[in-house]
UniProtKB/TrEMBL annotation:
Gene3D superfamilies: Alkaline Phosphatase, subunit A. SUPFAM superfamilies: Alkaline phosphatase-like. This is Sulfatase. InterPro entries: Alkaline_phosphatase_core_sf, GAG_Ulvan_Degrading_Sulfatases, Sulfatase_N. PANTHER family: SULFATASE, SULFATASE N-TERMINAL DOMAIN-CONTAINING PROTEIN. It holds the Pfam family Sulfatase. Residues 6-314 form the Sulfatase N-terminal domain. It comes from Halomarina salina.
Amino acid sequence: MSESPQNIVLLSADALRADHLSCYGYHRDTSPILDALAEESIQFTNAYSASSHTREAVPALLTGRYPDVAIDSKYNLASESIASMLTKNGFATGGFHSNPFVSRAYGFDQGFDVFDDDLRLGQHKLIALAQRVFDKLRNRHYARAEEINTRSLKWIDSLDDGEPFFLWNHYMDTHGPYDPPQEYLSAYRDHGATKQDLQSLYQRAIKQPESITDDERALLIDLYDAEIRYNDEKIGAFLEALRERDLLKQSLLIITADHGDAFGEHGYYEHPRYLHDEITHVPLLIHSPGTPGRTISTPVSTIDIVPTILDAIGQKTDDDRISLLSPLAKNRNVFSQVRGEKDESHLRRYALRSSEGVGFCERDSDADTLRFEECTSASHRADLEAYIENRVGADDNDTSVESEEVDDEIERRLEALGYK
């Protein structure tokens, strides 16, 4: 990149798997906006999340650290975020989303001048009961992409002319329960199911995946793809708004996802605590004026995004973290991790991916044992074992699975979103 960008724009979509985007080879035309953008961007075809669910994936995305140090044992943010880093470098910082797991209740407002987590009627864990009324009035438990766009553009317009900014928009539309606007769903199917029917189907897919018929699975995929098409269009509208303000050409733009979503490929739906491709392989596009579009197949990680941003503004990290704007080693390994929950809180799963293959392993912290699953080669197993050995100290400090002081209203929203 020839010069430092004035602004940094990070757009992430919740539960958006790469292989359901047409620019990643999907058979449906789900992402025409992102397809066109990919032609002008650095497109990473083998980008993997550091984890498979929001509570560990977003902290890694925002800090550039693996989840075992990015958060504490109760999922509170425990490492410095990119917002704090950029505040120190003179950027105005704004974050806009509606996922309770990365709300101010868990410290994710750290470093943001403005942090809108859609908890509209409260500023801490004690959310007013009127929040429930707010959700009922809009008949949803999250803010649509259009709402996120409106809120974030209002913030941008409030800044002084020429003031550099960092913006993080996180879109929830591709997260279940899938409820796309009818005009997007009609491109794939007509159905007579009610909103309640669809929510019940989604919950059953999570709790009783073996009960889902082929036609029900196809319906869930149609709903998901329609949400992608909606989200794609709204991202396009947001980018057009930046162009109209003459801001896009001054900005480093990064588009990615926190993780993917499963549709029965390994016997489960949604995104539980595993590390298969369908829930870790994510899209990643980096766009900046003056940087030619190209495709990179070398495996990369979402933890590479923070050092990439710092590199773009001329700030070097003091460790071995990798900027995606620099040449990448072709034989690079990238890793993912996820802690177990409830009866599996003593387990942590790990994955390694390289250009040559994969490795999967499960560690039992109670028994202090490793159980290797698929490994392409002995070297993959050795590299994965070395990585795990290096992370064990952090793992053993983080076996607790949940804060016991989460507000009831946040709990209600999490249940509506399929988390509980």
